[in-house]
Design brief:
heterodimer; A: alpha+beta; Rossmann fold; OB fold (Dihydrolipoamide Acetyltransferase, E2P); 2 domains; B: 422 residues; MetI-like fold; 18 helices; AAA+_ATPase (chain A); ABC transporter ATP-binding protein (chain A); P-loop_NTPase (chain A); ABC_SmlMolc_Importer (chain A); nucleotide-binding (chain A)
Chain lengths: 370, 422
């Protein structure tokens, strides 16, 4: 397994007229990594991908692949292969012709191509389906053919543009692990674009969270989830309950926030913001639904929250409780189903407790709207 | 229930009328091609004959016209499809704000009358020819070149419309995918876009050829020394038409039927093969043991195609040995007899009429003595002496039944009988 070829984005700006699609992106992607760009639609992640694959020239800055500047090099000369959102299989070519298109371009004989196609078809578990047309395949099979076609070109970097978004849930979950498997087997760099944080977290070595052309945070899944850099990252990745307020007191890497609704609450300052939060600043406090546990009703303290229950839901593995939250929004609490009895508290107040370490304090910022 | 059946009947009646309107002229014209009278007519049926086909194939001008039409057609197809494809590609690539304007400009030749296109082509290329200092026999003033250019100006627009329809369904991601996989732009065009466009290109080519073949109003200005079939036909019709033209039309209809059936049969077969492939198992596909349906199985169009082909061969076979000479001779004889009979009848009728008139005049003679009938000869002789008619008047019309008008003026004045009786 080779170490793979890394990709670097240096001060990358991409503008369309007055609109700035990508603003000063700096990313280092290690060779052989599975790297994801995660963000809502329209945040510029596909634009970055197109700049890497060569369909777009950056307005400023550089794209480096394996240390080589790609300026002025067309998509057909770059060591990348792109898997399109709609897969873009050639509808009039058979599966094996699709897969070996890159060899046909180089003038390989039909026999060679057939042999290579059979190898790749074995790899994607579609042996013997080479003579079908793409229209005769199911969604998941097409997906795998598109991957095989890209791999056949032996790229150093494989770019995937939301390839799973068109699939149904079951297939999507299956393809996640399959993609990861394939990536480990071929050992090349994968750059993956998605708006689905589940996909990004499960598959990636590293994730870049993007918002409106700006990269908010780069890190592995755990860091992104547990230690977000910005309010956007905290609210976009996974579910989170937000408490707005102002900083009352900073104690080392912890902070006391005077929240609008629930009084003074303690939280840990996210690691990138330690030392940046001062008394009197607007702040946001994030607590994940699963970070709460039940406490005796009416308990007061800097890590207790009391609110009225609006709605209750049984999801199998968890009980979801929706409580009156801030600004008319609901606050979600997920309690694991451990076989305990659970009485309905609908319409009644309830007190919850959380571990200060599991609450993250961040400077106030834009939230993700879902 | 009653209403329902009434509804159905009226639908069938409507369909019958519709198809009669649509196909009736073609059927009647086809029939005239096999009827022997030298003016094309379907009724009365005289003799089955194939002589109009041989007359057609001996007509140098028609054959030359067909040859020129095909030449012009091929040139127009090549030029129009190429320009149409370029135009269609441009339309999808162009800056969106310009698209509507561009579309209007490129579609305009369809709206311009063909006559105007013909004249302007002629004038424009004549100018160019002169500017280049070329003579009247240069390539630029050749009828073939001018006709191809002139027709292509608007046929290219038709082609573009056909091609744009297909191109709009083209996913530009396919081009990007090909580029991404290392193909050059030329390779992408050849290996991805062109195969995708092939059905539309074929349709556009057929359309272009037909439009070129039937074009008259543009060609009439540009044909020069290359008169096409339509030009030749138009010139012929001026001096009266023969069933040879019907024969030509019949051949064209037959070719069209063949092409349509062939196309239909092909499409149907493709559908059947696709269906068979869909239900095939992987092993069958792999080992090549998949039994594809035969060409004729459950394919009405293919069966019809074969039947029509057989019928054509049979008819051509019959035509080579069949001689309508006897029948034509019979018909001639019948006609001759008929004519004679008719003359005979006419004579008898005239004789009768004359006799009647005489009788009437005899009866009315005293009363109408001074007032001659307007139908009577205005000569002098018999007016004043009606008795002369008795002798000479009965004979004259009988001998010259067709020259009844001859007696105007001094018709029977010089008749010897007149003198005699006077």
């Amino acid at each position: 397994m080779s170490a793979g070829v890394g990709v670097n984005l240096e001060n990358l700006w991409i503008r369309f007229g007055d609109f700035v699609a990508v603003r000063d992106a700096n990313v280092n992607i290690n060779g052989g990594d599975f790297f994801s760009f995660l963000g809502p639609s329209g945040c510029g992640k596909t634009t970055i991908l197109r700049a890497v694959s060569g369909f777009l020239e950056p307005s400023e800055g550089n794209v480096l692949i394996g240390g080589n500047n790609m300026k002025g090099i067309g998509p057909n000369k770059r060591p990348t292969a792109l898997i399109f959102q709609n897969l873009a299989l050639f509808p009039l070519m058979k599966v094996w012709e699709n897969i070996t298109f890159s060899m046909e371009i180089k003038g390989a004989s039909a026999k060679e191509r057939r042999k290579r196609a059979d190898e790749l078809l074995d790899m994607i578990a579609l042996s013997g389906q080479g003579d079908k047309l793409p229209s005769e395949l199911s969604g998941g099979q097409k997906q795998r053919v598109a991957i095989a076609r890209a791999l056949c070109a032996e790229p150093d970097v494989l770019l995937l543009d939301e390839p799973l978004s068109a699939l149904d849930l079951k297939l999507r979950q299956h393809m996640r692990s399959e993609l990861r498997e394939i990536q480990k087997r071929v050992g090349i760099t994968f750059i993956y674009i998605t708006h689905d944080q589940g996909e990004a977290l499960t598959m990636s070595d590293n994730v870049a969270v993007m918002r409106a052309g700006v990269i908010d945070q780069i890190g592995d899944g755990k860091t992104i989830y547990n230690d977000p850099n910005t309010a956007f990252a905290a609210s976009f990745v996974g579910e989170n309950n937000v408490f707005r307020g102002t900083v009352k007191k900073v104690i080392g890497d912890e902070v006391m926030i005077n929240t609008n609704r629930s009084g003074d609450l303690m939280a840990r300052i996210s690691s990138s913001n330690v030392g940046k939060m001062k008394e009197g600043d607007d702040a946001m406090l994030f607590i994940r639904p699963e970070a709460f546990s039940l406490a005796p009703l009416g308990t007061q303290g800097d890590h207790f929250v009391t609110a009225e229950v609006h709605k209750e839901e049984f999801e199998g593995n968890v009980f979801n409780i929706f409580m009156e939250g801030e600004g008319g929004k609901e606050m979600k609490v997920s309690l694991p189903n451990l076989g305990q009895s659970f009485e309905s508290h609908k319409g009644e107040p309830m007190t919850l407790e959380y571990d200060v370490h599991n609450a993250v304090a961040l400077p106030a910022g834009v939230l993700a709207t879902e | 229930m009653k209403n329902f059946s009434l509804m159905r009947i009226s639908i069938w009646v409507y369909l019958a009328i519709f198809f009669a309107y649509l196909l009736g002229p073609l059927v009647i014209m086809s029939v005239t091609a096999f009827n022997s009278p030298s003016f094309p007519r379907a009724a009365p049926w005289e003799c089955l004959t194939f002589e109009w086909f041989s007359a057609l194939f001996q007509d140098e001008r028609i054959l030359n016209g067909i040859k020129n039409s095909i030449l012009v057609g091929l040139g127009t197809v090549t030029l129009s499809v190429a320009m149409g494809l370029a135009g269609a590609l441009m339309l999808t690539q162009i800056w969106p704000k310009l698209r509507a304007t561009y579309y209007t400009i490129i579609i305009a030749p369809i709206l311009v009358p063909g006559v105007v296109i013909g004249i302007s082509t002629l004038v424009f290329w004549d100018r160019v020819n002169r500017m280049l200092g070329l003579g009247a026999d240069s390539f630029l003033s050749s009828g073939l070149f001018l006709t191809v250019i002139g027709q292509s100006t608007f046929i290219a627009s038709y082609c573009m419309l056909v091609l744009v329809a297909r191109l709009q369904r083209y996913d530009s991601a396919l081009t990007e995918a090909a580029l991404d996989l290392g193909a050059s732009h030329a390779q992408t065009f050849r290996k991805v876009l062109l195969p995708f466009m092939r059905p539309a290109i074929a349709s556009a080519a057929v359309l272009a050829f037909l439009a070129s073949f039937e074009n008259y109003n543009t060609t009439t200005f540009t044909f020069g020394e290359y008169p096409t079939l339509t030009i030749e036909l138009a010139q012929k019709v001026r001096y009266g038409i023969t069933p040879a033209i019907s024969a030509l039309a019949f051949i064209i209809v037959l070719l069209t039927v063949f092409a349509a059936l062939f196309n239909e049969a092909k499409i149907r077969r493709q559908e059947l093969v696709a269906a068979a492939r869909k239900t095939a198992t992987v092993e069958e596909l792999e080992t090549g043991k998949l039994r594809l349906p035969g060409f004729l199985s459950s394919n009405t169009a293919a069966v019809l195609l074969v039947v029509v082909a057989m019928a054509t061969i049979a008819v051509v076979g019959t035509a080579t040995v069949y001689s309508p000479a006897q029948c034509i001779a019979d018909v001639k004889e019948t006609k001759r007899l008929e004519t004679e009979l008719r003359i005979q009848q006419l004579r008898e009728r005239r004789a009768q009429e004359a006799a009647q008139r005489e009788a009437e005049q005899g009866a009315n003679a005293p009363a109408t003595d001074t007032a001659p009938k307007p139908s009577n000869d205005s000569g002098f002789g018999n007016v004043f002496n009606p008795g002369t008619l008795q002798d000479g008047g009965t004979e004259t019309p009988e001998e010259e039944p067709d020259n009844s008008g001859d007696s105007s003026g001094s018709g029977s004045i010089f008749a010897p009988s007149n003198l005699q009786s006077n």
